Amino acid sequence: MIANGVLIDDEFAEAFPMKATRVIITAQNLQWAYNAAHAATGFATSVIACGCEAGVERELAPEETPDGRPGVAILLFAMSGKELGKQIERRIGQCVLTSPTSAAFAGIDGGEPVALGKNLRFFGDGFQQSKFIGGKRYWRVPVMDGEFLVEETTGIVPAVGGGNFLVLAESQPQALAACEAAIVAMKRVPNVIMPFPGGVVRSGSKVGSKYKALSASTNDAFCPTIRGITRSQLSAEVGSVMEIVIDGLTADDVSAATRAGLDAVIRLGAAAGVRRISAGNYGGKLGKYHFRLREILAS
Amino acid sequence: MSALRLTLRAAPAQRVDCAPLTPAALGGKSAAEIGALLLAAGGPPVRVDDLFTIEGTPGDTLVLAGATARLDGIGTALNGGTIEVDGDAGDYLGRGMATGTIRVSGSVGTFAGSGMTGGELRVRGHAGDFLGAPLPGEHRGIRGGLVLVEGNAGERAGDRMRRGTLLIKGNTGALLASRMVAGTIAVGGTVGPGAGTGMRRGTLLLPALPAGLPATFNDCGTFPLSFLTLLARAWRGLPAPFGDLPERGLRVRRLMGDLAAEGKGEILIRA
Question: Which chain A residue shows the shortest CA-CA distance from B247?
């Protein structure tokens, strides 16, 4: 399949079941909501070493937030509810509780409840106060700038992590420009995050390594600079490959984001140096969800 | 939605316990069966049809028309449905109710909402003493739900309150929120002496600093507290001054006490 001069591989992205939640972070203004959100979702690119994958989903207008202030919705994904609970507590405790004027609320009401402010309240050293308003419990924790208002729990729901596609271009700037265009389009899709820096990852991995201590290593088949000495999957005109990884609350959300990203890259087309689009998988044996590029484009 | 209407034939000479009259308890019964029910009274028990005329079909709503202050225990342990009281109600209105709604067009006696754990109780007139308070010997007052009194409330409203919301549009008597453990009380008018005596936690939102506040409350200063936005949003649709609480820009003077008790209660005075 060729679209706008770009070869679309007959490949699929292999994704996994995860657990996810959304947290709404508000502050005096959007800048400070972002400061807290960026800190809370920092170092959260991959569950392999970060404990969770997290990112900013979207900005929220004051009318959309529980306390009527500007806010940001973040999504957090982990391999288990237990690990996600641990990560929520650490990240909200260290990055949102600490951020001036911030407040944190559940962004998912259903699902399995997990502590948001339930344990963070103890920072109040006995001066914390609970308020039960509209069927929800909130904690008011006294802090030096006033009060940290935090909802007691947030909901954990089943989710999908690891959707992806690879952009193969003639040069590094062209690969990056195509991915940037894809990310702009994908950020308009609700319920998804692209957890890597700027939404783009350049170090795709394969399972296993020559070093016993490592369970994953560089995806040499897609590394252009060693094309001559490995079983490369790159043709001579491909000079750079970048990947976009997608986590979403449902498989449909991941599909929608993939579609938005593919469309944006294809729109640039061969004229912008994009040669091929592929996807990462493990032969289909490890992940429950398969996102076939051609089927998504045909849908 | 079907409704059963019980209209009082004449004001009873004795107090009558109306606790058995709830939509759930009367559901599925014929008019004859309802009429034959006996209600405890100051003298011998009285039949429902001796006291009331019976119209309509039992369902989600029960209307008590022409009610007087001698009808005690209306809506006791109410667990769903609506009771409309056209007139006054006696003591123990909504005692121990869990869900559902009680609306009274007139005034109510003592201990309204006592032991309540949920639901909504609205009184257009005044409420007597011990609104939402525990009975003697009980450890906890109201534990959930919303009580709205559009007139005044008597003494010791919210005594030992544990959770829920008490909104009093008019004035209150002495010792409002005495021994309060948690929850929220807001008052639109003036508050009698001794408010917050023995208060451990919880919130009292008042329009002005009450006279005769215990010396064991300390001033913490004036702040905008963001949880007030959540309260304002939850109270939308209620009568002023609760329904029109501003979502933004509300500043309150915060006094904390009672330091003779746990001392984590707060009296918030609108600045």
Answer: A68
ipTM of the complex: 0.93
| B108 and A CB contact within 8 Å | no
The beta-carbon neighbor of B227 closest among A69, A126, A138 is A138
Residue at B4 is within a domain: no
pLDDT in tens, A26-63: 999 999 999 999 999 999 999 989 999 999 999 999 99
- Any idea how long chain B is? 271
CATH topology assigned to domain A19-157: Alpha-Beta Plaits (3.30.70)
Is B233–A130 a contact, with Cβ atoms under 8 angstroms apart?
Answer: no
What is the residue type of B143?
Answer: R
pLDDT at B1: 57
Distance from CA of B209 to the nearest CA of A (A): 22
Residue B34: inside a domain: no
Distances (CA, A) of A291 to A158, A249, A257, A278, B203: 18, 15, 11, 11, 53
Domain ranges of chain A: 2-14+159-298, 19-157
A:93-152 residues touching chain B, CB 8 A cutoff: 103, 126-127, 129-134, 138, 140, 146-147, 149
pLDDT tens, A102-114?
Answer: 999 999 989 999 9
Amino acid identity of residue A120, one-letter, is L
